[in-house]
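A reminder before we start the practical. When you read a complex entry, don't treat the lines as separate problems. The point of joint prediction is that each chain is placed relative to the others, so the output describes one connected object in space. Small molecules and nucleic acid strands, if listed, are placed in the same frame. In the example below there are three entries. Take a minute to note the order of the lines before looking further.
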Amino acid sequence: MIAAISNSGFGRAFSTPLGVIAGGFLILLVVVALFAPWITPFDIALQDLDNRNTAPAWPHLMGTDEFGRDVLSRVIYGARTSLSVSATAIGISVTVGMILGAAAGYFGGMFERAVMTVVDLTWSFPDILIALIFVAILGPGLTSTMFAIAIAYLAQFTRLTRAQIVRLKQETFVEATINLGASPIHIVFRHLLPNALAPVIVVAMLAIGDGIVLEATLGFFGLGAQPPTPSWGAMMSSGTAQLFIAPWVIILPGVAIAITVIAVNLFGDELVRALDIRDRLRGS
Amino acid sequence: MIIKYSIQRLLMIIPVSLSISVFIFLIVHMLPGDPIDNLIRVGSSPADRIALIAKYGLDQSLFKQYIIWIGRIFTGDFGDAIVLRRPVADLIGQNLPYSLQLGALAFAFSSIVGLILGITAWAARNSWVEQVVKGFILLGSTVPGFWLALLMILLFSVTLGWFPVSGAKTWSSIVLPVLTIGFGGIALVARVTRVALLDVAREDFITLLHAKGLSRPVILFRHLLPHALLPVVTILALRIGWILGGAVTVEFVFGRPGLGSLLIRALGQRDYPVVQGCLLMLALAVMLGTLIGDITQAAMDPRIREASK
Amino acid sequence: MNYMSKTLMFSASALMSVGILTASLPSSAIAQEATFVFPAGEIGATSYNPITSSNLNSAASLIYDRLVEQDSDQSFHPHLATSWDESADGMTWIFKLRAGVKFHDGEPFNADTIASWIPDFVGTENAFMTAAIEKVEVIDPLTVKFVMKRPEPNLLYNLASTFMGVPGQKSYDSQGKDFGVKTAIGTGPFKLEKFEIGLETVVVRNDDYAWASDLSKNQGKAKIAKITFREIADQSTAFLELKTGGVDLLLGVPTDFLSILKKEKGVSVITMAGTGIQYMAINTTSEPFTDINVRQATALAINQSAILKSVYNGVGQEAHNFLINSLPAAKVKPALEISFNQAKAKKLLDGAGWKMGADGVRMKGGKALKVKLFTKNDTELKRLTQVIQAQLKDVGMDAVITVFDSSTIRDQYKKNNHQLAVRGYDWNNADILEWFFSGTRLGYPNVSMWTDAKSEKFKDTAMTKSTTSAERIANFRAYHEYVLSQFLFAPIYQPATNIAYNTKSLKVPAKIRGSRFRSQTIVDMEVIK
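Here is the predicted structure of the whole assembly.
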């Protein structure tokens, strides 16, 4: 089984040093996020008002924040928040996007045009505005963040899938299968979606990177995770006042975001190269 | 052909705009809270509040309020803000120039730098230079805007003193905001450019040009780029909405007025006429951009044009 | 004398004469221009029309003068009105006006101005400020009589408000909707030169100004010639502007930044007594807070002094009732003041049937003491709320925090979805009690959802049955004491107003007069570099 995985496209992504570093970091990050409640050195909500804003030193390896809470623990937990929000959001986006895109591409005509117009609007609207409107409707919190990220990237997945469908519609084997009596659903699942899956996964990875950044921006405005749940953006926001006293509160989460998103992007590029799906990505 | 397609799309803008206006109106009125609570001051009586609701027509049915609003829009009257107490057109008119200024310059910056980086990454493909350039491209889009803005202020304003910290009066005050937004946009342009070049460069006629003995720069600039630019322009046209309203975070940190900030403030105060007016304007601009984008894409890909008939 | 000493004497005398000359040069060789930054609460004003605006900023206090000014000790001082007289029954007021006052466009200020100005309020959002005035009679060019519909002991307070700055009547009537946008004519020490929404307001000195109130030392024109007021929403950006010398003065600094500001060389911070209270409203209609003992326990769980020390670094004051210290109606019976008492809080909860559970959360009848703790999306409020959450946990109450934006939270209040809400107000008059606890304002602003017959009676007496100022104070004190006895809220903190400025460029008077940092102080300031 290991041989099968490593020979597949995903496995090939690990064949370069860059792929190994980026991919390895991401796997580590996912593990950390999953096990965060058990591996944080301190309770993330434990306040220690006599030890506020202390510099990195043992036992607080990344220092403490304005409430005396351990920054390292909160950065670790922040990974959990950022990753889970982005992943859930992109998951929703991919599912809805692929359904919409497949339907639009398959049925064509007015339906396709209507769907693409609406979907394009979501992509052309700045994602921060969509997010803020959602927050105004649903209230601040991770749900609004998730919906906002999901909508912001919906267009990419819809376009990708639709482009695949349109391309494959022209293929003769599809015509033949239809003439032989196969139902549209069968065609969608057996032929069209598997081909669309690989590019979608790659774009999803890149979108997760952007999602992490958007979640941080919302957190900066105080609209993401509710206190005391840590989120990298919210940590940076409440840290700006301490800029010259405790700069690590701003710098460290920012570095965490940067490294994570860079790793995601690099691994995504390696995947593109490994799966050799560059031309399937043209439609986005 | 293209003309017929364009006219088809142009005509569709009217029904689409109307449906969007309904959508905008409904969303805005679905928001919890209302503008009157943002208007009343200590000392006023509960009766005053009821009088205000009637004064602004907020006690009428949603349908009636919508008709009144959209009717005024058709005569060019965007109405008066409730909490911000000025005609909406005035408010937009005062903020729009700043957004356009910042957006256009940032757009130009990311397009130019993105193009250069994308071309470089393609020209140096399969070498270590490509990896370096790709890393460079990544820098801007991996950090949140406000973090980058803060770092820039700390480095260039506070430490080096080259630029003012904030404001919108002098030309030097626009440099850091443009850089902050611009860095974020580079990745998209560069990526699209590189992919477009990779595609175009496979075509047979490029091989033919090589065989004819044309030099690589000539091939690049005279033959490859014009074809590769089409998808780039398409993508960029679709992002017009970002030019107008996407700079909210940067405007906030650098203390600049702008359409995005106006929208967010009005949203926070539930100032219905302002939010509706701004969203409608953004939607119209975005549709225009999408139209341009779609037309160029149709001109580029006969298969898609064929399929949409 | 030999050559050397002649030269020496010559140069010495030359130096001396140069020294004398420069010493006698007017200090206005320095450009008297300064840049101020609006505080966060004053951002986004879109008009300088005091009669129709809902949001006025500090620059408006420089453009317009008021009939009276209020000092921080609540006393009223003459400004455009030199003296006033209230009849025994409160139904008539006579105001004597100052002579020689002119508007920026040359129009003279006199009794006709007042007679034309007061009716302007009718039909506007601010009509309630003059609602008690029946009509204005001109007695002579410098005397007016207000005939009242009912006694209004609060009249002087309203007249001292920035919203009752007097606009030039000729200009006001002719400009209509454009007044306050393109032009703003007042009698103030500064004239409006330029106004760009969301960006800045520029005011220039009124050289004819000779009628400052006695709250200012300088009775003539202002020393500063031009002030630019900038709007900067991000507090860190504002701080960095002050640090780099891009601006000269920040009109409001969050307490967060005080510690770094104090470390800055060349920056000085003035702390003025604030004009508001931060408190936690308790929803009296929501279980378990229907029980007055639980409410009292909740209020007693709040440790005001720990909060003052850790959240606000000792800046400001603790709050133990609903009104700011300087208001006479705040001087209630000491037994009614609400202070931290954790032992008593725990006992009260035990007595109410809430027994401590194994995980540190109290239980009653199988239900856990889990409550909703709402607050607005504001950095300081959120920090405060997190500390309060911890203090509530210490008495066995599990409070779950939800943060909302201000419009949404009001909607939540009106839908009665809340239980505890950490919030604040900024108002320096006792009628804030009516605003937040009147039975006619349930939901918002009456977040405590409180109403009972006794409360309404106290309220009516205080609001409408007071004829003199002393009576009003006594009536409001009684209302205040009743509200305290019912534990409708937990008092937390009285914020201070902090002003930070560049000592190298500005000279600010040592003692700040007035309840807020306004025109009375600004006319005394000068630029020194």
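Discuss with your neighbour: DSSP finds eleven helices and no strands in chain A. What might explain this?
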